[in-house]
User: Which sequence fits this backbone?
């Protein structure tokens, strides 16, 4: 079985993260000190697709660790409805692998016009997005040629983790971030959590989590759609019980993102109810020791490799999802 670009790039993640953590340390320390001196009143996250999922991860991470409200941008407000928001004293963080998507670049310009300080987390430090913002944290991920993003997503979460740990001065979190190259490598050798046998014949499924687990459930569901062609939807387990749970009566497959943090007990209670109603539940749990805020990165590292392997088993090309290309241009 030949290794796809998706697999090779996912396997590069520990090296990418090690390079990024070292290269970005001084810039991240400077930003953290600046934000401690004058904290933004709110943070807006801007991104599309995988980068938008990184924004959801940032929402939980910043709100839990820093207590600053975080909102996810609706790019259509500026792009289609031509409305500039009042963003004085706000920090706007724009995440993009390529830095070339016109709508994201436009968001940076509109945010600056609205009074925001704009920070780009971007792989191409010479891209139009990098040139449009006030500050840049490069991903240092190198070329990412696979349509399904892997290492750039995990590098985005790493950049967010390093900034948060330095900003909050949470030494336990900073230690976990600094050890990510090793723990991500361990996750690569962890037994598979998604197998071809479990997904044979599956055309629809749900991915459920709480908090940071829900944030990565969005990314996992996207990869199931992109790479395997499975109709997968992500929900908070709490939201799932408010209506969509009726779907489990049809022998629905449910992926359970297990994150042992403050949300764990209530999430597992909700999953027990979902099992009781007849769902077929697959636990997504990587038994590697790290800070609970960084544990989701290890889950996604393992899941990327598993999804690629399932695609190969199903004779699907993980590098050529139908109808997709690397840079998507929208307004």
Assistant:
């Amino acid at each position: 079985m030949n290794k796809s670009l998706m697999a090779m790039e996912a396997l590069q993640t520990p090296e990418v993260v090690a390079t990024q953590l070292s290269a970005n340390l001084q810039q991240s320390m400077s930003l953290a000190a600046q934000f401690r001196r004058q904290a933004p009143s709110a943070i807006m996250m801007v991104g599309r697709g995988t980068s938008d999922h990184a924004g959801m991860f940032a929402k939980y991470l910043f709100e839990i660790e820093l207590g600053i409200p975080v909102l996810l941008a609706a790019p259509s407000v500026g792009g289609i409805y031509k409305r500039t928001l009042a963003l004085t004293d706000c920090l706007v963080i724009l995440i993009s692998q390529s830095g070339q998507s016109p709508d994201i670049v436009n968001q940076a310009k509109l945010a600056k016009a609205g009074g925001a300080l704009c920070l780009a987390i971007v792989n191409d430090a010479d891209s139009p997005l990098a040139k449009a913002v006030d500050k840049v944290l490069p991903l240092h991920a190198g070329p990412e040629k696979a349509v399904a993003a892997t290492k750039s997503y995990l590098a985005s979460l790493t950049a967010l983790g390093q900034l948060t740990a330095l900003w909050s001065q949470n030494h336990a979190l900073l230690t976990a971030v600094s050890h990510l190259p090793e723990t991500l490598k361990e996750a690569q050798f962890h037994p598979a959590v998604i197998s071809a046998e479990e997904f044979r014949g599956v055309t629809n499924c749900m991915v459920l989590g709480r908090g940071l687990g829900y944030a990565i459930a969005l990314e996992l569901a996207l990869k199931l759609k992109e790479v395997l062609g499975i109709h997968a939807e992500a929900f908070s387990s709490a939201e799932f019980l408010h209506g969509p749970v009726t779907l489990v009566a049809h022998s629905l497959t449910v992926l359970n993102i297990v994150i042992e943090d403050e949300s764990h007990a209530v999430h597992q209670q909700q999953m027990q109810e979902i099992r009781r109603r007849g769902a077929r539940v697959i636990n997504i749990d990587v038994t590697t020791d790290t800070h609970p805020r960084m544990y989701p990165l290890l889950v996604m590292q393992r899941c990327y490799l598993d999804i690629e392997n399932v695609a190969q088993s199903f004779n699907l090309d993980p590098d050529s999802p139908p109808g997709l290309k690397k840079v998507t241009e929208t307004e």
Notes: The chain has a mean pLDDT of 93. The chain has 14 helices and nine strands. The two ends are 40 Å apart (CA to CA).
